[in-house]
Structures are given as structure tokens and as C-alpha cells.
Design goal:
The chain has twelve helices and no strands. The protein is mainly alpha-helical.
């Protein structure tokens, strides 16, 4: 409900700076909610100690960037080859970069740092928990859809959220549940989706770059599965 309250407040306030802050609160709703619950239960120190441990820190930083860069650049190259387009990079404004940088902290402490471990502690199977988180994560984007619309068809976006949720989960598992791996993946994804110009709005409405990206992310998921099963 926190994003919904922020949306209502934005309609009542004309100050651009305050509206920008409210937009940031919308994005940070998962983490804000998780921190409030952890504080009420006096478990924040325990959770944060586990989430931000230094084990495998290099892997937690390098591997997510490598996966995102590889899948997005390869998706754009494949699209350009298939459709005879030029490989052109996109750009981001300072405001967009600030929002993307804020997303580094805003979501994953709530999603993969708190909600997914909570589901597993409640008895949800480890292969099912990422799917549930992915579904909730997708539905949570309703406030962005209301305000900005969406470039990507919602069914495709839904599928991508599920697949990416599993990638997040695998990154967490191979880095001893370091939330840094999920945060870096989320940041890199949000940044490079604009730089590589994957979104339909940056390709004259063509959704195939995004579809190819989802296919490549699925291949990454199968690679993770084949190395862990």
C-alpha cells in the first residue's frame, strides 16, 4: 500500500522535488517495509549481518555485472543481425541515473534479503520461493504501470520477473546469501537496459530485443540449474 499512498500524495502536491522524493519512496517500499518489520521484531541486526557478509564479495560484484552485460549486449547483437539494424547505444539522463542508483538499495533488501528467506523459513520449497517472490515483485510494479505505463507487454514482463527472480536466487545461493549480488544485478540490469537500448520504445516499438533478452536469461537459468543439481 505504501506506493499507492505515495501516488495519491503526488496528485495532491505540485512541488517537483517532493514528488521526486515520493517516487523514491515508492521504489523503496519493499526495503522500507522489511526494515520496519525487522525493527519491530528486533531482528534487523541479525538479518543485516547475514545479508552484508564479506564472503565471496568479488563474485557478488563481478558475476552479476558479467551476466547482465553478456545477455543484454548479445540480445542486441542478435536482434541487429536478424532485423538488419545498426547496433546503437542508448543514453540516460542524470535524473534517470539517480533513480537507477537509488534502486541499488531500494528493493532487494526487501525482496531477496527478507521475503524469500522468510518464505523458506515458513516451509516453502526452495525451488518455489523464487517463483512466489517473482510473482509478487511483478504485481508490485502496478504503481509504475499506473504512472508511466509500460513499454513491455505485461505477460512478457511477468515471465521475465519469474526468470530473473530465479537468477537472483541463484546469485544469492552461490554467494552465501550476500544481498550485494542481488543489488548489483538489479542495478546493472536497470542501467544497461537503457544503455543497450533494449526497451521497445528505443526500437520503434519492436519487442523482439526484449524477447531475445528473456530467452538468453532463461539459458542462464538453465546453466545455473545444470551446475547445481
Amino acid at each position: 500500500m505504501l506506493p499507492f499512498v505515495a501516488i495519491i500524495a503526488q496528485t495532491m502536491i505540485s512541488n517537483d522535488f517532493i514528488c521526486f522524493i515520493l517516487y523514491g519512496i515508492q521504489a523503496a517500499a519493499p526495503t522500507i517495509s522489511a526494515i520496519i518489520v525487522l525493527c519491530l521484531n528486533k531482528k534487523m541486526k541479525m538479518y543485516f549481518t547475514q545479508m552484508f557478509q564479506r564472503k565471496h564479495l568479488k563474485i557478488a560484484i563481478i558475476l552479476p555485472f558479467f551476466i547482465v552485460c553478456t545477455t543484454m549486449i548479445l540480445a542486441k547483437i542478435i536482434f541487429c543481425v536478424l532485423f538488419g539494424s545498426y547496433f546503437m547505444l542508448g543514453s540516460i539522463s542524470i535524473a534517470q541515473f539517480i533513480i537507477i542508483l537509488w534502486a541499488l538499495w531500494a528493493e532487494e533488501i526487501g525482496w531477496r534479503g527478507y521475503l524469500e528467506p522468510l518464505l523458506k523459513m515458513c516451509g516453502v520449497h526452495k525451488w518455489i520461493a523464487p517463483c512466489i517472490v517473482g510473482v509478487i515483485w511483478c504485481l508490485w510494479h502496478y504503481h509504475f504501470f499506473i504512472q508511466n505505463g509500460t513499454d513491455v507487454p505485461i505477460p512478457l514482463f511477468f515471465i521475465s520477473c519469474i526468470i530473473e527472480s530465479y537468477i537472483y536466487s541463484f546469485l544469492m545461493s552461490i554467494t552465501y546469501n550476500s544481498i550485494i549480488s542481488a543489488m548489483i544485478y538489479h542495478f546493472a540490469w536497470n542501467l544497461l537496459i537503457h544503455i543497450t537500448a533494449i526497451n521497445p520504445s528505443e526500437n520503434n516499438g519492436n519487442i523482439f530485443p526484449y524477447i531475445i533478452l528473456v530467452i538468453l536469461e532463461t539459458l542462464v537459468l538453465f546453466i545455473f540449474w545444470s551446475t547445481t543439481i
